[in-house]
């Protein structure tokens, strides 16, 4: 709250014996303005936190099926064939691709808030249908489960353009936050997703232990595990319904304009190819190696029990977590592109070592687990911690949802291809499990080398100042015949620094001694009253304050701000109408109009 005190000329009249009136004296006027900076910081913080929860929920719902398939293989050995297992794994991925492409458009044209609410609702619906999947036959149950997982995938996929664009714009509100955006995004997009993967392995294991690993309870285990995935999106639904809109979106959105996609592709084809290619390669490696970590451990150590195999898989998935911290710190210091290329390259080197020396390494299971985990950590240090941020910073606000959505769709295409070919590659050698495991590491490392080349030679260093990118896009459109674009959108409940929106102040000035003897009260004509206008609907009377008169003393209102003259109360019962010129939201000042400005008895609005 900003409080300023300044001397203002206020007519403070006093009667003399000769009937003349003293000149107005200087009186201190206290102007109390409740700025939204604290609310802005809170909104930014909540936007960041809940974006992370949303993406973490997606990681949980994507990864949990790999561990649940191990349980389903025991209780449905005939129904869960290799083809059904592949469809079950890919249904969520296909749904995510649809959600990413569609909600990229929704986020830019209908708003971040609309997209966030819809994605949450669709995700919860898909999870509920998955947990309650049933059918006359086991095949029917699996088909319902596949369809429900696809619906959940649509909601989960929509989170990436919505949360990615919203979080990037939220971190652009404050310069101090902007310079730490790399680390913040690593926590939002990478750490939260890594925690989601870790919990996706941990929850089924804990449920197995709760049911004492009894086979007759395995169906309850997988249904409860799927149902628990609805808790995070439900917990943030109310905030998303009440979420605010970023300054960047209000200033640079193209909601009411046709987006010239031809010009957009011509301008941004290189960053689009770079983020799509690097994200595709990253998920081609990361998803199957994380999703089937328990399967790989089971092949290396086939004598382990189901619970022990899942426990080792959980340990491996926990190696995702430190990569987010390291990558976030590096991206703010050496840049997004260099961090991504470095991570890809180191992952490729270790992968070739694992594949080439697997015969010796697998003799010590703990050594294999540690090296496998570091292999995943290096992927998170590079593309895992930087790719969502790079995609968000590579496009202007009007295209950010589109760009992130298209790039994320390519990433899930890579994940779907990786999971589709992963098991067939391992099964190609039949009972020779060694060569199957060796092949997936060598192939994954080869793709990591390709990812390093794409990151280094195709991607460009991004500008952390989002307004600069918006200005470049506006100038580019103006130079190509789109000089009269209607930018931005007026929405209530926006976040941003105070200068980005109008401040509405209510002024009450208390006069001093009367210049004539008191007169009996008389009725006040309507023209002597000032009608308080609602700031959002200037033509409607505010229900809170119908009149403002000069002899009325109201307590300070910390929300709207008040002005009080430090002078004695008036004994004059007749009101003095005061009218300040009405200002539009685009031109309203954040400083109080001088009370010394001439007042009239007519409404100037």
TrEMBL record:
Belongs to the major facilitator superfamily. Sugar transporter (TC 2.A.1.1) family. Residues 47-463 form the Major facilitator superfamily (MFS) profile domain. Residues 530-542 have a biased composition (Basic and acidic residues). Keywords: Membrane, Transmembrane, Transmembrane helix, Transport. Residues 1-28, 512-605 are annotated as: Disordered. SUPFAM superfamilies: MFS general substrate transporter. It is found in: Membrane. It comes from Aspergillus avenaceus. It is a multi-pass membrane protein. Residues 16-28, 584-605 have a biased composition (Polar residues). This is Major facilitator superfamily domain-containing protein. One of its GO terms (cellular component) is plasma membrane. PANTHER family: CARBOXYLIC ACID TRANSPORTER PROTEIN HOMOLOG (PTHR23508:SF10). The keyword Membrane applies.
């Amino acid at each position: 709250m900003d409080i300023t005190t300044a001397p203002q000329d206020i007519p403070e009249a006093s009667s003399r014996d000769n009937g003349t009136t003293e000149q107005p004296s200087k009186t201190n006027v206290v102007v109390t303005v409740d700025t939204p900076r604290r609310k802005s910081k809170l909104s930014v913080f909540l936007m960041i936190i809940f974006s992370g929860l949303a993406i973490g929920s997606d990681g949980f719902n994507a990864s949990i099926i790999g561990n649940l398939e191990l349980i389903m293989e025991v209780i449905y050995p005939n129904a869960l064939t290799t083809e059904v297992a592949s469809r079950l794994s890919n249904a969520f991925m296909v749904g995510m691709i649809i959600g990413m492409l569609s909600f990229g458009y929704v986020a830019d044209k209908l708003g971040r808030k609309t997209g966030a609410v819809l994605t949450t609702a669709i995700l919860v619906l898909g999870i509920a249908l998955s947990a309650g999947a049933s059918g006359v036959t086991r095949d029917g149950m699996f088909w319902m489960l596949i369809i429900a997982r696809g619906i959940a995938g649509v909601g989960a996929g929509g989170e990436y353009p919505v949360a990615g664009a919203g979080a990037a714009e939220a971190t652009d509100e404050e310069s101090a936050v902007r310079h730490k955006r790399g680390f913040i995004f690593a926590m939002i997009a990478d750490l939260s997703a890594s925690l989601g993967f870790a919990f996706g392995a941990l929850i089924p294991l804990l449920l197995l232990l709760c049911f004492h690993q009894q086979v007759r309870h395995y169906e309850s285990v997988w249904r409860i595990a799927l149902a628990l995935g609805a808790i995070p999106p439900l917990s943030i639904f109310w905030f998303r319904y009440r979420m605010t809109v970023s300054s960047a979106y209000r200033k640079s959105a193209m909601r009411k304009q046709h987006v010239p996609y031809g010009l957009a592709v011509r301008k941004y084809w290189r960053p689009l190819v770079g983020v799509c290619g690097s994200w595709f390669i990253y998920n081609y490696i990361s998803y199957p190696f994380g999703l089937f970590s328990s399967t790989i451990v089971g092949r290396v150590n086939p004598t382990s029990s189901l619970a022990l195999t899942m426990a080792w898989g959980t340990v491996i998935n926990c190696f995702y977590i430190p990569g987010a911290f390291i990558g976030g710190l590096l991206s703010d210091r050496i840049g997004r592109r260099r961090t991504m290329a470095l991570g890809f390259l180191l992952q490729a080197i270790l992968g070739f070592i694992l594949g080439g020396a697997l015969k010796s390494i697998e003799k010590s299971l703990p050594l294999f687990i540690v090296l496998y985990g570091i292999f995943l950590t290096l992927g998170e240090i590079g593309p895992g911690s930087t790719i969502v941020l790079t995609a968000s910073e590579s496009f202007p606000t009007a295209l950010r949802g589109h760009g992130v959505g298209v790039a994320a769709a390519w990433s899930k295409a890579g994940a779907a291809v990786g999971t589709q070919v992963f098991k067939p590659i391992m099964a190609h050698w039949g009972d020779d499990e060694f060569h199957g495991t060796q092949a997936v590491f060598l192939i994954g490392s080869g793709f990591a080398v390709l990812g390093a080349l794409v990151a280094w030679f195709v991607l460009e260093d991004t500008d952390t100042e989002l307004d600069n990118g918006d200005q470049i896009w506006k100038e580019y459109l103006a130079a190509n015949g789109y000089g009269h674009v209607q930018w931005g959108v007026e929405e209530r409940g926006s976040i941003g620094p105070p200068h980005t929106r109008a401040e509405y102040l209510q002024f009450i000035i208390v006069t001093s001694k009367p210049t004539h003897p008191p007169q009996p009260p008389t009725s006040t004509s309507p023209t002597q009253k000032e009608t308080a206008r609602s700031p959002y609907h200037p033509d409607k009377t505010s229900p809170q304050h119908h009149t403002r008169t000069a002899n009325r003393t109201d307590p300070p209102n910390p929300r709207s701000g008040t002005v009080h003259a430090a002078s004695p109360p008036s004994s004059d019962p007749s009101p003095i109408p005061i009218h300040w010129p009405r200002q539009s939201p685009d031109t309203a000042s954040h400083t109080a109009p001088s009370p010394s400005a001439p007042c009239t008895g007519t409404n100037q609005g």
